[in-house]
Amino acid sequence: MKKPQVGIVMGSDSDNPIMEETCKVLERFGVNYEKLVSSAHRSPERTRKYVAGAKKRGIKVLVAGAGGAAHLAGVMAAESILPVIGIPIPSTPLQGLDSLLSTAQMPGGVPVAAMAVGSAGARNAGILAVQILALGDASLTAKLLKYKKDQAREVELKSRKLNAANGRNPKN
Amino acid sequence: MKKPQVGIVMGSDSDNPIMEETCKVLERFGVNYEKLVSSAHRSPERTRKYVAGAKKRGIKVLVAGAGGAAHLAGVMAAESILPVIGIPIPSTPLQGLDSLLSTAQMPGGVPVAAMAVGSAGARNAGILAVQILALGDASLTAKLLKYKKDQAREVELKSRKLNAANGRNPKN
Amino acid sequence: MKKPQVGIVMGSDSDNPIMEETCKVLERFGVNYEKLVSSAHRSPERTRKYVAGAKKRGIKVLVAGAGGAAHLAGVMAAESILPVIGIPIPSTPLQGLDSLLSTAQMPGGVPVAAMAVGSAGARNAGILAVQILALGDASLTAKLLKYKKDQAREVELKSRKLNAANGRNPKN
Amino acid sequence: MKKPQVGIVMGSDSDNPIMEETCKVLERFGVNYEKLVSSAHRSPERTRKYVAGAKKRGIKVLVAGAGGAAHLAGVMAAESILPVIGIPIPSTPLQGLDSLLSTAQMPGGVPVAAMAVGSAGARNAGILAVQILALGDASLTAKLLKYKKDQAREVELKSRKLNAANGRNPKN
Amino acid sequence: MKKPQVGIVMGSDSDNPIMEETCKVLERFGVNYEKLVSSAHRSPERTRKYVAGAKKRGIKVLVAGAGGAAHLAGVMAAESILPVIGIPIPSTPLQGLDSLLSTAQMPGGVPVAAMAVGSAGARNAGILAVQILALGDASLTAKLLKYKKDQAREVELKSRKLNAANGRNPKN
Amino acid sequence: MKKPQVGIVMGSDSDNPIMEETCKVLERFGVNYEKLVSSAHRSPERTRKYVAGAKKRGIKVLVAGAGGAAHLAGVMAAESILPVIGIPIPSTPLQGLDSLLSTAQMPGGVPVAAMAVGSAGARNAGILAVQILALGDASLTAKLLKYKKDQAREVELKSRKLNAANGRNPKN
Amino acid sequence: MKKPQVGIVMGSDSDNPIMEETCKVLERFGVNYEKLVSSAHRSPERTRKYVAGAKKRGIKVLVAGAGGAAHLAGVMAAESILPVIGIPIPSTPLQGLDSLLSTAQMPGGVPVAAMAVGSAGARNAGILAVQILALGDASLTAKLLKYKKDQAREVELKSRKLNAANGRNPKN
Amino acid sequence: MKKPQVGIVMGSDSDNPIMEETCKVLERFGVNYEKLVSSAHRSPERTRKYVAGAKKRGIKVLVAGAGGAAHLAGVMAAESILPVIGIPIPSTPLQGLDSLLSTAQMPGGVPVAAMAVGSAGARNAGILAVQILALGDASLTAKLLKYKKDQAREVELKSRKLNAANGRNPKN
Q1: How does strand B84-89 pair with strand F61-67?
Q2: Is residue A135 a contact partner of residue H60, using CB atoms and an 8 Å limit?
Q3: CB contact under 8 A, B111 and C131
Q4: DSSP bridge pairs for E37
Q5: What's the rounded Cα separation, in Å, for the pair B33 and B130?
Q6: For strand F6-10 and strand E113-114, is the pairing parallel, antiparallel, or unpaired?
Q7: Buried (b) or exposed (e) across D61-72, using 16+ Cβ within 10 A?
Q8: What angle do CA A103, A105, A106 make, to 5 degrees?
Q9: Which one-letter DSSP state was computed for residue B37?
């Protein structure tokens, strides 16, 4: 079996339903990944060790999902030169504004690629990881081009279905 | 000379003018401290080493000032069982809302004592540190009681001065 | 029975489910506490009297939970030189942004240690209180060190359990 | 000289330039007032004593201006059954969102009449105080009616002046 | 039957459950009121006519509840010299931040007394109206003093009940 | 059958329940429309082609509903000189603040007429479209005048019904 | 001279520098307009009278600029069936978030076309007005098409100029 | 000369001072880039053509900087399968909250890697681009490792310098 190329870390196992969106995308593109729970705050050493060893074991892109004062992506970015993608999880009463700002507002010198809050962001983390890997893998490029086309066609089909169901012009 | 009891860390040397407010308070109370620049993101190992050694060297309270996705206090709290006080620095165009949320919204298990954004918060970090140390130091308790009285009297004096200057009742 | 060392005040009895998180932590660490309902606005004299007598009766740390224009922690801090920890309760339609700002944005001179909004903050208030008490109690220090280790291990176990349940590498 | 009917309290003497807007309005309407600096946090006893004695000394409306975690109006409302008007002062990097929420989001049972952030709010505090006093003073009612008319006419005059200056229809 | 002294207007009949909190308070204090639905935007003339006639018919305080771009209180204040109390209703997906800002941020010259968002604000609108009327009605003053005491006692009783139920010190 | 004059585009078929509010209004006014699903991001070419052909086919007003980083209205405005009305859909955990800012904060040169977040905005998009079309269609003007009157009367009826149900003055 | 087709109202003469952006656009397109200062709150009757007479005098589009609790556009929309465009002016310490929400969050039934906060919004109000008028005026359509092309070309020229100045590829 | 690997687009030439931060980083790492001004809204065709041709001409990473309703990055991501990095520019009175949400809150299917608001974000866009390119370029990997070390050392030096200047322990 191929070695994982993407390392997905989430701050709490309660983030898993959202993080599964990232997994689904990677599976669809046939990209191997590994996933673990590790907190920037509650298990900092585990997080650090994982990140420290990631590059050597073949990981090329790191993905981190965390809520509240979401430091996980930033902490991973501090320890690695791999691209780090951060997904703000809406797990507090502030509904993700806190996690978005904690993920995106990184200081100069240590980038995190912030995604949207929640499931849409988790899905996009998978796609961005594939886009990055595709720069060195022509088969992924082809799959991405097809994905983009399929996505556009799917919108069109849904539109026609909706109009048909509503008794409106089924060509739109 | 007495060993420092408070360890002050700031994420960038540009945070120093604000962090000096913490120093001034500690000096007023005669509490020794040490201060250094160390970033959660740009110098994570330095930050970790400092925190790891702090307790043994006699540090009892940690103070962290950082802006933007302000992870410094959280990263220090992850590595220590000492009380950690966090000061959100308003150093980005979002003016401190980002640093406040990144400092305050810590997950359960790893507390950070968040102060107000900016100078008022830095000053209060010093006072809170003294309040914590005063639990084991009766002379600090006496100083705090005096400080509280002085502070109230100062308000009164300013009020009278203002009224006098405005030609209003100088007793108010 | 030992005297309480932590005084927990909540602005309304409806805040109790959240404030129980503070109690649970203190009980786990064997720290005695007392808890009462008292509002900064509806029972100001009761609040003041409680705070005025707290230090003499052996209270070392005050914890306040309140929602909306959450003044309780600030009012208590105004009347005491004990460390005051504030928990913003998300009890209004603004979901805690109001209580967070009302708790954290204290003016220079009167600190409140603001926690995260809601349950995570309440849990952390308990831990911070223990961290403060541990400065004068070696047995609490030992318990905190163990708590930190247990917490890290728990993350690891949850991670493996999750991966096992998902048919992925159970070592992660 | 007539006794003051309005008691104006500000949390800091640095709030005075804004609070002068309240004074100007009251002077225009010939309403006597007294003004003092007293902080909810730094001089709580002074604040309380002032409020406790206000009603007996003839004060009918209380006005409070404060910034940040602006508790002053709420603390005064807790101690009095007089109407309390609160002016959020934009004195922190969060520019008044904190003081507005801390002033307006009072719990049920203890109202504060929140004004706009800053100078406009201070001016309106004066007018609202006059409106309240006018319920028992016909001469103030007459002055308010005139003030409202003058205000409307002033808008009209400014409009014509602006159009004239711009070479546009001077009737608009 | 006594003439109503308070005029309550809500922008939509869907605001009624919240506005009933104002009514309950007024009924408790024996203050007569009238209540109507009238929108600043959908029935501007009705709103204006109501406000124009209010003073003559004996109304002394106006209360307005509205959501979203909550203009109702401001529109009423533009047409009257009576004190106008505004209650921001959380009726849009923005959950009341919009209605609070639209109610509180009035320009200089036309005050609105903004309450908290939602039910707490509606309850406080009633109390503030009573506080204003009490300036000219000694019996209301007595009732307000009793209300304040009852409120404080109620907090105390709830506290003891809670502690008793939890097996903790029933004196707190 | 008359050609459609309004073109309604939504970014996702899940926005349809909200967008139906626009349709209902247009149907009430007898204005023909066409509706389709097309995303600014997932089907950019389809969106562009639709907009490019709209004017020639007789469309006079474009309506776009989208959530999150709601670019749809802006993208359509970039490609057309027809008036574009944008409806921010509250489809992310940030509840529409993101879609409102993404819709309203257009740069100088390319206007979008932003409506309120959600259903109220969708309804108003329909009315604004009719108001624009009415400038060239006297029958629509007449209908709008009647709509405005009906709307005011409906408020009045609801008010009386509410008061009657509550045993209060049924004339209000 | 041609009669004005656009009526521009601003709440305060201090809004004029921003509102001049609307004028400049209309002048560029040769569209006649009239401009006046009239406040929703300080001169409600003047505002109402202006709006009531606007349609008869040939006005086809209304533009309103206001800050804070920006009710002006909404009040005008309540009184007219003409399209109303609202420009949120950033005139308070909250920097336009208040005026944006007060302008955009209109209830169902009474639309306001909200523009961006400040100058960009004022400029776009002019363009949107022209787009609406162009539906019945082919010469404006032609001008809008040219404006759109010029705008695109201007971007290209600025890009080349910038690259040339920076010594980079002057074709980009 | 080597072909550019990074394509930098900014929505307005006024964004250039911030975008220069991206350029500086790329130059430091010896990565070729091209930079142009092109707006999502004012020059959509130019933007599209640029993006459509980018991949063929060897561009591997796209960077977009835009303010307000910052659609540029999203529009580019819609047209390409290359990784797109978005920098929110704080160019409106809302100071970048609008551009951050417009950049980050992308719908599922079309990722944008959002950076921090302003200069820090622009600098990080450059570093992230290098991190992505380094996956296929060992010399960039080496440079990144050195950059990370230099960055940490620079923090340490600044700290010592600051302490020395303040007469404090120059080892910290």
Answers
A1: unpaired
A2: yes
A3: yes
A4: E10
A5: 11
A6: unpaired
A7: bbbbbbbbbbbb
A8: 85
A9: E
Half-sphere exposure in the Cβ direction for C15 (13 Å, CA): 37
ipTM higher than threshold 0.95:
yes
**CB of B70 within 8 A of CB of B89?**
yes
Residue B73 token pair: 């206090």
pTM over 0.95: yes
∠ CA G11-D134-D55 to the nearest 5 degrees? 115
In this complex, the chains that touch E, judged by 3 or more CB pairs closer than 8 A, are: C, D, F, G
Q: Which residues contact G80 (CB under 8 A, 6 or more apart)?
A: G51, G52, G54, G55, G62
| Chain F hits for H97, Cβ within 8 Å | 101
Closest among H68, H98, H74 to H86, alpha carbons compared: H74
Alpha-carbon distances, residue D14 vs A93, E124, F172 (angstroms): 35, 30, 48
Tens place of pLDDT for every residue, chain B, 172 residues?
A: 589 999 999 999 999 999 999 999 999 999 999 999 999 999 999 999 999 999 999 999 999 999 999 999 999 999 999 999 999 999 999 999 999 999 999 999 999 999 999 999 999 999 999 999 999 999 999 999 999 999 999 999 999 999 999 888 888 8
Residue whose entry in the numeric block shows the structure tokens 């599964």: A20
**Cβ-based interface (< 8 Å): residues of D facing B:** 13, 16, 34-39, 42-46, 68-69, 92-95
Q: Which ranges of G29-168 would DSSP assign to H, the alpha helix?
A: 44-54, 72-78, 97-104, 119-134, 138-165
In sign, the C-alpha dihedral spanning B97, B98, B103, B108 is positive
DSSP alpha helix (H) spans, B33-137? 44-54, 72-78, 97-104, 119-134
Give the DSSP letter of residue B1.
-
Which tens digit of pLDDT belongs to each residue from E92-147? 999 999 999 999 999 999 999 999 999 999 999 999 999 999 999 999 999 999 99
Q: What is the DSSP letter of H113?
A: E
The first and second tokens of residue F39, run together, are 């995303």
DSSP state, D37?
Answer: E
The DSSP bridge partners found for residue G9 are G36, G64
Tokens of A115: 């995604």
Q: What DSSP assignment string belongs to E6-42?
A: EEEEESSGGGHHHHHHHHHHHHHTT--EEEEE--TTT
Distance of CA C8 to the CA centre of its chain: 8
Tell me how far apart the alpha carbons of residues E160 and G165 are, in angstroms, rounded to a whole number.
76
Cite the beta strand spans of A52-148 per DSSP E.
Answer: 61-67, 84-89, 113-114
The token pair at F31 is 């204005």
Q: How many CB atoms lie within 10 A of CB F145?
A: 12
Residue from the list E95, E152, E162 with its beta carbon closest to the beta carbon of C46: E152
Given a contact cutoff of 8 angstroms between Cβ atoms, the answer to whether H80 and H112 are in contact is: no
What's the rounded mean pLDDT across residues D107-127? 98
Pairwise CB contact (< 8 Å): F113 & G21:
no
Q: Which residues of D27-49 are buried (b: 16+ CB within 10 A; e: fewer)?
A: eebebebbbbbbbbbbbbebbbe
b (16+ CB within 10 A) / e for F110-135: bbbbbbbbbbbbbbbbbbbbbbbbbb
Residue with tokens 């009012």, as numbered in its chain? C75
How far apart are alpha carbons C102 and B35 in whole angstroms? Answer: 29
The letter for the amino acid at B3 is K
CA A94, CA A88: separation in Å to the nearest integer?
12
Query: Residues in chain H whose beta carbon is closer than 8 A to a beta carbon of chain G?
Result: 13, 16, 34-39, 42-46, 68-69, 92-95
Distance from CA of H115 to the nearest CA of G (A): 23
CB pairs under 8 A between B and C: 115
User: Could you identify the residue written with the tokens 């190992």?
Assistant: B45
C-alpha to C-alpha distance for G157 and G172, rounded to whole angstroms: 9
In the structure, what pLDDT confidence band is assigned to residue H162 with cuts at 50, 70 and 90? very high
Q: Name beta bridge partners: D88.
A: D66
Check residue D1 and give its pLDDT.
59
